[in-house]
From TrEMBL:
Compartment(s) where it occurs, according to its Swiss-Prot or TrEMBL record: Membrane
Every G-protein coupled receptors family 1 profile domain range: 24-282
Species of provenance: Triplophysa tibetana
Name the record gives this protein: Taste receptor type 2
Cellular component, GO, one term: membrane
Entry keyword set: G-protein coupled receptor, Membrane, Receptor, Sensory transduction, Taste, Transducer, Transmembrane, Transmembrane helix
Signal peptide: none
UniProt cross-references to InterPro entries, sorted A to Z: GPCR_Rhodpsn_7TM, TAS2R
Gene3D superfamilies: Rhodopsin 7-helix transmembrane proteins (1.20.1070.10)
Similarity comment: family membership: Belongs to the G-protein coupled receptor T2R family.
Pfam families: TAS2R
TM region positions: 12-32, 44-66, 86-109, 130-150, 178-202, 232-256, 262-282
Topology in the lipid bilayer: Multi-pass membrane protein
Length: 323
């Protein structure tokens, strides 16, 4: 059971994470919007990243809003409103994870060359309807979380502290639903990401071996920004796997021990959205280069902290930002 001091500390930490998450995701949205204004078109990769950014920003705002209300409403006057906020938070959490899994699936399909088969045709069909897939993810995310309202505890007392707006299972059906939610929000997206990452690593190793053989070992193979995208994709998978471990452990305390650890669940989700947003910015060289340049320009205004400058990325001729 989390004490009031623990909740306050998590609330402050979530606020700092929210600032970072909003900054990175707003940066992504602004850069993508500027590119769209120049070319009047948006590639599927940018559209998926935009969907993730919007969901992540909204998730962080609602998370901090819920925690703030929980800190203020110590007598559970607006308990049901807090429960609705929790349902929205869990819905957006589901949207973010599935959208990220879809992004990894997209990169895996684009970066990996496979023989034409029934599976590859299904992949191509899915990627031709990115907008519809993302719309389905958003709608299903909210629909799948509506049953959480049934599990609203009007007043759950543990020790001497009242937990307002908590969602705790009490019946067999509710336990089944929580297990179902963990399956669709953590396990299945993780399987999709890991499968795609394994395909990427296998084909990357094969591709590098072929390139090295064709050059007779004269020089190391260079893939430019394609390698950067691969690193970003694999980083997102590692980040998500670590998150799944932490999320499932905290969810287990809710299901098996009947403890209110929702603060920890939303904190872990906040950490994930922050780190994954930073990874997506780093994944596109043009985005990262511009961000570093802006950061260094800002430090130029304050000579006393100029030592915090980051070395800027040099553009190489072979680097092409192709998604």
């Amino acid at each position: 059971m989390l004490m009031l001091t623990d909740k306050l500390l998590i609330w402050l930490t979530t606020g700092l994470l929210a600032i970072c998450t909003i900054f990175f995701n707003m940066y992504l949205l602004l850069v993508i919007h500027r590119s769209y204004r120049k070319t009047h078109k948006m590639n599927p990769c940018d559209f998926i990243i935009s969907a993730i950014a919007v969901a992540s920003i909204t998730l962080q705002i609602l998370t901090y809003f819920w925690q703030t209300i929980d800190q203020i409403d110590i007598v559970c006057k607006i308990n049901y409103a807090e429960a609705i906020l929790l349902v929205l938070i869990f819905s957006l959490k589901l949207v973010v994870f599935w959208s990220t899994a879809f992004l990894i699936f997209y990169y895996g399909t684009k970066l990996v060359v496979e023989p034409v088969s029934c599976y590859t045709r299904i992949q191509e069909a899915i990627l031709k309807h990115v907008h519809i897939v993302l719309l389905f993810i958003y709608i299903s995310g909210f629909v799948n979380c509506v049953p959480l309202l049934i599990m609203v505890g009007h007043k759950n007392y543990t020790s001497t502290i009242a937990d307002c707006g908590t969602i705790l299972p009490t019946t067999p059906l509710e336990y089944i639903y929580i297990s179902y939610y963990i399956l669709i929000s953590d396990i299945i997206p993780c399987i999709v990401m890991v499968k795609s990452s394994i395909s990427i690593m296998y084909n990357l190793a094969k591709h590098l071996r072929n390139m090295k053989a064709s050059s007779n070992g004269a020089h190391g193979p260079k893939l430019g920004t394609q390698m950067r995208v691969i690193k970003m994709t694999l980083s997102l998978v590692v980040i998500f796997v670590l998150f799944v471990v932490g999320d499932m452990l905290t969810m287990a305390t809710v299901v098996l021990m009947m403890q209110n650890t929702l603060y920890l669940i939303v904190l872990i989700a906040s950490i994930y959205t922050t780190v994954s947003a930073a990874a997506m910015v780093y994944g596109k060289k043009s985005h990262w280069k511009e961000l570093v340049a802006s950061y260094n320009l800002f430090l130029d205004e304050y000579p006393c902290i100029s030592g915090l400058k980051v070395s800027e990325v040099k553009t190489e001729p072979q680097d092409n930002e192709e998604e």
